[in-house]
Design brief:
This protein is an alpha+beta fold. The protein contains three helices and ten strands; from the N terminus they run ααβββββββαβββ.
Length: 257
C-alpha cells in the first residue's frame, strides 16, 4: 500500500520588525491614554473634595444657627456664641463629640471619615480626651484641610500692643457668605514652621490694619488640584483658584466683632 507523508505547514509568526511595530503602536496609545486617565482621576478627586467641603459648610450653617438645635459641645456654655474649634471637633468627631469606644488612639475608618482632602489620602488617627488644638488629630503632617484661622484667633491692639485674642462666632457670621471657612492646606509645611496645621490665614496688605499674621507663617495653602486650591465659604459655595489672595470677593480680612 502506498504511504502518504503528512505535510506540516510552518505556522506563521511575527517577525522582529512586526513586533517592534506592535510595541511602538502600544507605546503611542499608552502615551495618549495615560494623561487622559490621570486627568480623569484628578477631576474625580477634585469633585469629591468639593463635595466634602460643601457638606462641611452645610454642617456649619446648622452649627451657627440659633434655631437648629445642634449640639455645640463646650460652646453650649457661651449662650448664643460658639468657638470654631468646637465646630471643627464636631466634624472630626473628637473631644466632646467622640463616637465609639473610648480608646487612647483610633484610626479613622470609612465609617467615620476624617476631614481630609481625597487627593491627599494619608492615614490619620484621632485621640480621645483632648481638644483639637492639643493634637487630637494626628499625625499633624498628614492634615490636609484647615479652617480660616481668623475665625479662631483675631488681631487686636491691647494697651498699644498687637496681640491675638480668641474669636467668638455667632449666627451673625452667616450674613457674610464670602468669608472663607476652610481650604486645602499643606500640613507638612505647617509642621516644618512649628505651627499646627488645623488653621491657616494669609497675611493682609500692610494698609489693611493690625494683623498678627503679617509674617506669613500661618499661610500654607495646598495647590494639589491641578495647580489650584479649593476654598469653601460660609455661604456654602466652593471655589478654586491659582491665586486665592487676588480674588476680589474673597473676604480673607474678615474677623468677628
Amino acid at each position: 500500500m502506498p504511504h502518504f507523508r503528512r505535510v506540516q505547514h510552518a505556522r506563521p509568526a511575527f517577525t522582529l520588525i512586526e513586533l517592534m511595530i506592535v510595541v511602538a503602536i502600544v507605546s503611542v496609545l499608552l502615551a495618549i491614554l495615560l494623561p487622559a486617565l490621570s486627568a480623569s482621576r484628578q477631576a474625580a478627586l477634585d469633585l469629591r473634595c468639593r463635595s466634602q467641603f460643601r457638606n462641611v459648610t452645610q454642617s456649619f450653617v446648622a452649627f451657627a444657627s440659633d434655631t437648629s438645635g445642634v449640639n455645640r459641645g463646650d460652646s453650649e456654655k457661651l449662650d448664643r456664641l460658639f468657638r470654631i474649634e468646637d465646630f471643627q471637633e464636631s466634624i472630626y468627631r473628637i473631644h466632646e463629640f467622640w463616637e465609639g469606644p473610648i480608646v487612647a488612639r483610633s484610626t479613622y475608618s470609612v465609617n467615620l471619615p476624617p476631614m481630609f482632602c481625597p487627593a491627599s489620602p494619608a492615614k490619620m488617627e484621632r485621640r480621645s480626651g483632648i481638644p483639637c488644638s492639643s493634637g487630637a488629630v494626628a499625625p499633624q503632617k498628614n492634615v490636609s484641610v484647615g479652617f480660616n484661622k481668623r475665625l479662631e484667633t483675631k488681631s487686636k491692639v491691647v494697651n498699644g500692643t498687637l496681640t491675638g485674642v480668641k474669636a467668638y462666632l455667632g449666627e451673625k457670621i452667616l450674613q457674610f457668605p464670602d468669608v472663607p471657612l476652610l481650604l486645602d492646606v499643606e500640613g507638612e509645611l505647617a509642621v516644618s514652621r512649628g505651627v499646627i496645621p488645623y488653621y491657616a490665614a494669609p497675611p493682609l496688605p500692610k494698609d489693611a490694619g493690625p494683623d498678627i499674621y503679617l509674617n506669613g507663617k500661618y499661610w500654607f495653602p495646598s495647590f494639589r488640584h491641578r495647580g489650584s486650591v479649593n476654598v469653601a465659604f460660609v455661604g456654602g459655595h466652593v471655589l478654586s483658584s491659582r491665586q486665592p489672595l487676588n480674588e476680589p470677593w474673597w473676604r480673607w480680612n474678615y474677623q468677628p466683632d
